[in-house]
Amino acid sequence: MRTFKHLLMSILFLYLSVVAKGQEITNNNINNQFKQVFEQSNDYQNYKVIKKSSFNSLWKNSLDTLNIKDHKIASELKTINQKNTDIQKLKQELERKNTELIHAKQSVDEIYFLGFIGMNKSLYNIICFSIIAILLIICIIIYIWNKHSKTTAKEKSFLYDEICKEYKTFKTRSHENEKKLARELQDERNKLAEHNIR
User: What phi and psi values does residue 32 have, to the nearest 5 degrees?
Assistant: First the structure.
């Protein structure tokens, strides 16, 4: 029975030493306590005999340390989970902002032609400049045609004036010729009448 107790104590001691090794070495208090318990223990054959009070104190301190570590780990896990949740929220916010940015860029790059036809700014600029160029060409054609029409009208007016002058001249001459012919006819009638009387 005594050997069984010694064996149990040795296993417990090994377990505690493994747990203590598994923990961070920075905890000098527990580490020093293990050393102290080990150094103060008595040797019995191949076993170490530990005082119950030292063992209980070491056990209690180990449990307290483990509990503190567990709480710290739980707190760190909670913080990590909170950070992960925050990261997920930030990722979602970033995706939403990127989507809004893409929509904003599209709305900046897009113009509604005639109020309802959506098109790219470059295409809109091409259409506007094409319309302006066509209107400018039409204006130039109208200007040239108008100028040509004015020149033609001036020429026609000049020709009309010339024809009017010639017509007036012709009318005057033909009126004079008519008077002349009428006088000659009258003269001839008078001559004829004189011959008939005689």
Answer: -65, -35
The closest alpha carbon to 125, from 111, 105, 139, belongs to: 111
CA–CA separation, 105 and 99 (whole Å): 10
pLDDT one-digit tens code per residue, 69-110: 888 899 888 999 999 999 999 999 999 999 988 887 777 667
Say if residue 87 is exposed, middle or buried (CB neighbours under 10 Å; 0-12, 13-18, 19+): exposed
pTM check: above 0.85: no
Give the start-to-end residue ranges of the domains of the chain: 2-101, 114-198
Residue 58: name the closest of 86, 39, 20, 30 by CA.
30
The number of angstroms, rounded, from the C-alpha of 159 to the middle of its chain's C-alpha atoms is: 68
- Look up residue 198 and give its amino acid: R
Check: CB of residue 12 under 8 Å from CB of residue 63.
no
Work out whether the CA dihedral 136, 142, 145, 151 comes out positive or negative. Answer: negative
Q: Report DSSP state, residue 118.
A: E
